[in-house]
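We examine the record.

___
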Amino acid sequence: MAQLIHQAKHDGEWRFSVALSTGEELRGVLHPGFRKEESHRLVGKCLDLESAYRQLAVRPSQRHLAIFSLKNPVSGQVEFFECNALPFGASAAVHGFNRAAMALEKIMMSMFGIPCTHYFDDFSFIAPAAVAEPVLELAQEVLDLLGWEVKGETKDVLLDACFTALGVSFDLRRATDYRHPCLVVSNTENRVKELTKTICDFLKSGKMSAAEAAQLRGRLVFANSQFFGKLGAMAYHYLGKRAHFAGPARCRAALGLGLVGRPPRQDACETRPPRGSQAAAGPLHGRVLRT
């Protein structure tokens, strides 16, 4: 739609054409509501479900399979409880919730025509500025109709050309550039600072447990997936070794500094200038920048 609005604006008479897969071509004149300045600009927003796992109940006949234990602070005895909702931390709960999330995405896209995607309980929406507000209102009405609650703070976030979803920043400001459309994906500034501080703290203390190595490795793998290259692979290798090693280990060895040559925080965490992938020629072929 953004491309059609942009095409009509450059026509001079607000005309546009759409080529269908059948070979037919639809022609028309752009509605006055879409002729405003920046109406073709893409904006986005993320809606986060409130206590997502708690919104999915365990089937009563299956509750005997969803048991957790907790020490009673008064009696000192271990007590067992049945879960009424998906137990947070159980691997099966992740797959169970994702099936529900995929169903929500399918319903919004197929039945209501809402452009969206999801990553676990974060639902991202991108639409032209001319129709973005009604699209978000419809999405919230659909979720409410199906009985899903959305976090209050995410409702209040305004639609913008730059938005964040699960620690990842999406920059849409050049996404509708007619000649060189470009989407920039990067780690958020807070995530970069957090990772850098964590690595510096480990290097300063010189100690890292197997559990801490596994946790840091997982966070680095996620962060490294937002930009080109495999600069973090060496750190993953040594962190993985530390995570599966029961005895004590030096932190510098766990981070693989002997082979990396310098702290991986400088390579895997700090923001670098965007590097673009090669895009095919033509105004409708875009590209994605991962920074």
Observations:
- The first helix runs from residue 2 to 11.
